[in-house]
Every structure is written in C-alpha cells, then in structure tokens.
Design brief:
alpha/beta; Rossmann fold; Methionyl-tRNA Fmet Formyltransferase, Chain A, domain 2; 2 domains; 7-stranded mixed β-sheet; 6-stranded antiparallel β-sheet; 15 strands; 27% strand; elongated
Amino acid sequence: MNIVFFGTSEFAMTVLRKLIDSEHKVLAVVTQPDRRRGRSLMFSSPPVKIIAIKHDIPVYQPNDASSEESVAYLERLNADLFVVVAFGQILKKEALHTPGVYAVNIHSSLLPKYRGAAPTNWAIMNGDTVSGVTIIRMNEKMDEGDIILKKEIAIDKDDTNITLSEKLANIGADALMEAMESIGSASARFAKQDDSAATYAPKLKKEDGLINWDESAVKIHNKVRGLLPWPGAYTHFKGKTLKILKTEVLEEWNGKGASGEVVDIIKHKGIVIKTGEGNLLIQHVQIEAKKPFDTDAFLCGHKVPIGYRFLTDL
C-alpha cells in the first residue's frame, strides 16, 4: 500500500523505520515544524524528519495538517492509507477523509484506557503492571476510533517512561505490519471502544514534576520513573531545582523525621529521605544547570547533612 506517515517523536521514528523496510511505500512524512530546543535555543528537527531525509522521502511540516493548504497537499499524494503515530496534532475530518482506505493510529496504551497525549507516563505514575499498544481506525474524536488490534506487555518494576516507550514502539511497529496485512486483504475486524471504561492521560506540564514529600515513597518513586525524560521529578535544594533521576523504595522504615527530611546517607548507595509513608533512597540527581550525578558525586560538591529537609515549595 501507498502510505503517508504522520509522526514526530522517537517512538514514531521506530515505526517509520519498520515501514520503510517493509513492502509498503512511504509517499511522504508529515511532521511538526522544527522547534528551538535546549538552553541554546537552536532549531532542532523531529527525529522522523531525519530518517525521512536519509531515505529520500519528501517531508511536509505544516503548523496545521488539517488546513485547506495541507489537505490539498495530502490529496495530491493519492495515498491508500494514513499511518499516524505520536504526531502531536489532531487531524480533522477533512484530512482523515483524504486517503483511499482510511487513517490508522498506533496508541501506546490498551484503549480505552489512557486516551490522550501521555499514556506511558501516566501508566507508570499510577503504578500499572500492564501496558500495550492499540491500533485504531481513526475518527474525529481523540483516540476513540474502532479497535483493529491490541498487543499487551508487562511493565517491569524497573521500567521508566523511556524504557517502556522503547518497548512499545517496537511492539507497535510489528502490530502495524500485522494490521496492515488484514487491511490490505479487507479482512480487518473492528471493535468499538467502551466509552464507560475510558480513562485519560493529559499532556504533561512542568509543574507535574514537583515532588510532594507528604506522598508515599511508592508514589514518588513511580513519579520519578514516569516523568523521564521530561519534565522530570524534582524538588528544591538551597534555592535551586534538583531533579531526582533514580530512586528505590526502602522496605525498612522507622517512621521518624518529617516528610522530605534526610534521615540517612549510605555511601555508594544514596540519600535516604522520609516520605509521607516509607523511606525513599535517592540514587541519581541533577542540580539545575549541571549534568546528572550519582549521589556520591553530588555529595562531594554539596553539603547535605542528616536532618536537612527538602521542601515542596521554595
């Protein structure tokens, strides 16, 4: 089939690579415009653009992929199928009705659970033990299309948003190939989503990363895992932002101290902080404007005595 691919992120890049290596033809890649990123504010291209250019695939970067101009461009491509993966824009009716067959989306959750922009983040933050991908025939409503295929995997206790996303990208790419085979042979079957079972995974904001030390050690640990690489879980240390990059929930807990208080420092292991329920071992951190460190290296340059209290607010 002749495909137009819509995607932006590294998750989408994995799927695009699989499509390029398949029997299908990618006519064009539609992605977000280049953005200024990082402290230098240099323009950076989406990962899928880099792959597309490498394979001489035309790249289209509209601010609105559903605009009249964009729809006219898409119509000229005469595609059989649109494949949409972590694109970052909502396609309206005019765009969705352009391909000869229809548009499909790979969503990194087991729909109708976690409709929205950040399903893997919220799955880990909520302590889920199972995740997966769902391929849907798209309609005009966000992540509400009929289900073509689902694939389920376990969330490992050490998974972060980064590692889970990598796993799901590979599974999603394979699932897409399977779904496209059934679509091409007109044997695909569709199942409507149960809207009463729907949950949502809203887009993350920077303030979502602020740690509330009154929460349990397990909940904070899951926040650390779920918010990598952005916005990251963070606290405040001597007037600066301190990102917490890796943690471990400690089983033993004496209950002494206030929430956010350093109750122990274990050489070569980390800083032990009391939470609202349980103790949390902080293993890797990143102070504002510096590179990441393990806690041994961090403590060489920063005095953190037992009894020091990390605060939720400055």
